[in-house]
## 1
Amino acid sequence: MSVDAVPAQKPKNFPLYRTAAGFVRDPLRQLERISSEGDGRLIRIDLGASHPYLVTHPDHIQQVLRRESENFQRDGVFWRPLRELMGDSILSEGAEWEHSKRVLQPVFTTRNVNRLTGLMAGAINNAVAKLDEPARTGQPVDVLAEMGRIVNETVIKVLFGDKISPNDANRLIPTFDQIATLISFRFLLPFVPRAIPMPGDRAFRDAVNVMDEVLFELVERYRDDPGDGSDIFTALCQAPTEHGEPPTNKWIRDNLLAMFATSTETTTLALTWLWPLLHDHPDVQDRLVAEIEEVVGGDPVRPDHLPRLPYVSQVVDELLRLYPVGWMFPRMATRPTSIGGVPIRPGDSVLISPFLTHRLASVWERPLEFDPDRFTPENVREHHRYAYFPFGGGPHQCIGRHVFKVEARMILTSILSRFRPRLSEAVPAMPRIGATLRPREPLEMTLTHAGKGE
Ligand code: HEM
């Protein structure tokens, strides 16, 4: 569907008295309501202490993320909790961000990712094989925990050069999970001053201390001898600084944490949302199974299978349309400008959300319907570049997007080539929000071996 530019106009205002109750009951649904009422117009939301703009129109997204990316910076109240946690890492802004990105980018080039896919396939097949036992006994598995296990085993082996031992991982992963959950309080209520204690603040500090113990130990162990792999660890330990001195332990720790956060949580959650969608759309699952049976059969998945699995690719693309797990990334204006004719002043916050744009009826036909055929090569050409942006855009566009696409397709294929998963019950389609999109309730599924019990 083509998207017409919106003529200059005033922002649509949503005063607090109209929205407060909805925000308390269900913030994501309330944002979705506001966004669809605004229908692509710039929206001003009253959050009491602050009035951020909600930007949903693809032209405006392009302006903020790409054309005026220098003006709209990753700064302001929304980024503060992350900045405190991850310092001058690739998730920061300005010269510090640029330096980290220069160091890490070589790990994520198409050439390097292609080199890593064989290793990745091996790690995925091994991790998925551990589902044999629950499939044999009929014991239900926790979907989030199992997707997390498969993703973590893969990412640690492939992207972190197998330098995080199982023992380190057993301490790091639950602590990191706790941090991701606890930081959500601050992320959702960014305007509460630091001086005011909030639930979870103490637990948060304790979790950060445990995580730092593990990360700094790892840095000490490997910094002078990281090996010659093309992984994140090696790239960080061998990074030159501007003045030719070796990188500090703190800088390596900040980037290790940023990369661990971005590479595990997002992929795990995206793959978790896959199963409720397939549960509700058995026709899509049947098509996937037919394609996988024909191309992969009972073999372990290999990189050369992927180009012959176009429907798997479409399903993954459509999954991220409905559940773009990096659902909100704010920016702060540093210079005066205007969006859609509405004046924007320095210091104004602008909220960008692929979750909301992907669900606008003026951007996507039948936006709430799961339909992987939107992503056939012919249909993709019809979309505005910023009608679909699960990985953001412009200079901060996700550097892990190729890794994700390869990893997610292989995990989906490996699971469906061996098993027929069945969810224990239907799942509410609306996620719970924090820094990412999580299911509201724990999700369980039982697995049967492919070819049996169908
Ligand atoms: C479902 C999977 C993923 C989604 C939805 C996702 C989404 C995003 C989004 C929206 C951004 C832009 C943030 C902004 O503009 O402020 C981003 C940035 C980033 N992502 Fe991802 N991501 C995913 C997977 C990954 C993976 C697997 C990795 C690493 C292996 C990764 C590493 C990064 C990094 C380092 C950045 C910051 C880039 C920069 O600022 O230069 N992401 N991601």
## 2
Amino acid sequence: MINHGRLEERIQSLGMIGATPEGGVARLSLSKEDREAQMLVSAWMQKAGMEVRVDPAGNLIGRIEGTRREAQPVVIGSHIDSVVNGGKYDGVIGVIGGIEVVQHLHEEGIKPLRPIEVIAFCEEEGSRFQSGLFGSRAMVGAINEQDFELVDQQGMTRREALIQFGLDPKKIKEEVVRRQGAIQAYLEMHIEQGPVLELLQAPIGIVNGIAGPAWVEVTVQGKAGHAGTLPMNMRQDALLGAAQIALLVEDICHAYQDAPVVGTVGHMEVLPGGANTVPGRVVFSVDVRDIDKGRRDEVMRQVKTGAQQICEQRGLGFSWNERLNLDPVECSPSIIDVMKEQSLKMKLQCPLLISGAGHDAQLMAVITEMGMIFVRCKDGVSHNPAEYADIADIALGTELLSRVALHLASQ
Ligand SMILES: [Zn+2]
């Protein structure tokens, strides 16, 4: 049986690392808090009988061997980094659930044919270097030089942060990248981060696809000046241009009515950033997602054209840097079938649903069969200290995860 008490206790203990006064967590990748979290999770992995290592991309990996040593592993993964003031469940339940699956087998003395690995991927959220899914991209060979040059708010590059964490980024290609077929299957359990399961009164759901996010960093260049002496008609205020572009993102997405396309400006840096200074430069993010890649790219194209026009009209400079562009991904039909079959044995009706959020699973799908389980969360709230999922729901998700992992690891 899945140990509810242990699951709950571990979720709460991990939530204490980087705890914020609002009751949430701030655990940025490769930080002091991340190190502490990795050490705690690593101790749990060892208790579950796993060998543990951190690969050169900062992924924490636990592995338990099967009866056939050379067999490709079944991998269960998610992440333990968080957004700046996030919740206790996002990513965490997938890693703790994965450890529970292995610990349960270990305690019952069940040894499947294949090895099982549990991975906590590095910087899934992208909240430190503003570029997410780093660890899983590294694992499928989808990172480039630019990823290492990105800087955090203190001006430290990701390369420096990796080195300071005791890792050697030069070894990523050799030691992190896994080729097509090197993994038998990849499974991820995650909170839904949306309202669908709650609406359907279903504790868990089976994911059939993940929307593809496109993420761009836009810089609007104006001219800084004195807020008291510079007349209104002589200004090149970068923030006013940026604000107009943010509203344009909303307008364009609204124009698509019933389509699930969503656009967000969630990060904005105003420079030089003084209350008495006209903003000279603004750097901000535009995030657009859809399950239809063509429609999503069309929205991005319209945003870019419109933003260029706004900047021209206001006499502002404009630059557009693509930070992330991932295709929408379908979950493996054969894993979905196993999930349906196993959930029926548990006498559960699991609805099929789409993931609007990005997950490490969508990268892993590049090299292996992938499946995801969603757990209902309160009011669909996530990336917020109020994020909450009921332990009974998490335990059901973990039970399904366990059944599916065991099934896949036995053949
Ligand atoms: Zn997550």
